[in-house]
Amino acid sequence: MNPDALTDQLELFLDVLETGSFSAAARRHPLTPSAVARRIDALERAMGSSLFNRTTHAVRVTPAGLAFAERARRILAELHLARAEAVSLSSAPEGLIRIDAPSPFGRRHLAPAIAEFLRANPGLDVQLRLIDSFIDLQGEHLGEVDIVVRIGPLPDSRLVATPLASMTRIVCASPEYLRRRGIPRSPLELEQHDGLDWDSLAPPYAWRFEVDGKLQLCKPKRLRQTSNNAETLLFSALAGLGVAHLPTWMSSEHLQRGELIPLFCEQGLPAIEPVSIYALRLEREASPRTRLLLSFLKQRFGFPPPWDQALQASLAIPQQ
User: Fold this and answer.
1) Buried b / exposed e along 101-126 (16+ C-beta atoms within 10 A)
2) What's the pLDDT tens digit per position in 69-126?
3) Where exactly are the structural domains of the chain?
4) Which end of the chain has fewer CB atoms within 10 angstroms, the N or the C?
5) pLDDT for 170-209, tens place per residue?
6) Least confident stretch, 170-184, 208-222, 251-265
């Protein structure tokens, strides 16, 4: 299989994984839903394993498909890097890319990714500004910067948004807190626990759970700490002060190490939120250097992102 065909096949597989539908994936390619199904069938035969379970309503990834997705992203990232390196020797884009991003996500995930991107693109430079202000992430600085990374609902439909990664939120607490206060077995029991919460503009899907077929707000009655910064809530959860509802991009490593215990995850990770992690820009047509970076970040993060893949794998191991 030539590199272009391999890239197309892997990107099609990842689009089916992201959308959960042959029809939705087909709309991203010049294909019909039946053609998408045939290509996925061929990929499964080549792999010797079922990558998706099909029903009349949805296409759901299998454990083998989830494991393959991680490899597929790595292969695509390597292909993109190889091409970027080859182009950099001739006519690669040059110049400065200016980025604003939220500090916690930038430190944990964006900065390492950009360092890798810059190694592969010696003609490009990046100005990465990590900021804490929620207002600054509305896109008001676009024009001064090329890209604003935003987590949550889109602020303005006039902005062009590129989804970079899915968002999942998980209820968690420290082992010490749970030994002291007990483990809630249902979101309805959260009311009896101490909580760590946002003090003003909470994320739209925080503390919302499907109970008896309905989405309900279930949260602790007593709040030991409130803050406008999720990283502050993480530190307090690690200190055993209460229960928090944190994004997995922030809490995954602590959950994998056992410093925090996931709650209500008997069936695996909770469903992803309707909102995503986005890169916002003003121009409908991005510059070549910006397109190159966006393509790299989409492959580096993706749906599901690497922090969720690692966490899902750890949840599959029975807890002692």
Assistant:
1) bbebbbeebbeebbeebeebbeebeb
2) 888 888 888 887 777 666 555 566 889 999 999 999 999 999 999 999 999 999 999 9
3) 3-89, 95-163+279-300, 169-271
4) C
5) 999 999 999 999 999 999 999 999 999 998 777 888 999 9
6) 208-222
Q: What is the DSSP string of 228-253?
A: S-HHHHHHHHHTTS-BEEEEHHHHHH
Which residues is 245 bridged to in the sheet? 171
**Residue 180: Cβ within 10 Å count:** 11
Which is nearest to 105 in space by CA: 230, 198, 235? Answer: 230
Q: DSSP secondary-structure letter at 188?
A: G
SS3 label, residue 131: strand
Superfamily of domain 95-163+279-300: Periplasmic binding protein-like II (3.40.190.10)
Does 169-271 match 95-163+279-300 at the fold level? yes
DSSP 302: B
Q: Which residues make Cβ contacts (< 8 Å) with residue 162, sequence separation at least 6?
A: 278, 279, 280, 281, 294, 298
The answer to whether the beta carbons of residues 276 and 297 sit under 8 Å apart is no
Fold of 3-89: Arc Repressor Mutant, subunit A (1.10.10)
CATH number of 169-271: 3.40.190.10
Query: pLDDT tens, 287-302?
Result: 889 999 999 999 999 8
Is residue 213 exposed (0-12), middle (13-18) or buried (19+ Cβ within 10 Å)?
exposed
- With beta carbons less than 8 A apart as the criterion, state whether 21 and 59 touch: yes
In whole angstroms, give the CA distance from residue 178 to residue 263: 10
Cβ-based burial of 4 (10 A; exposed 0-12, middle 13-18, buried ≥19)? exposed
- Predicted TM-score (pTM) of the model is 0.69
Q: State the first-to-last Cα distance of the chain, in angstroms, to the nearest integer.
A: 45
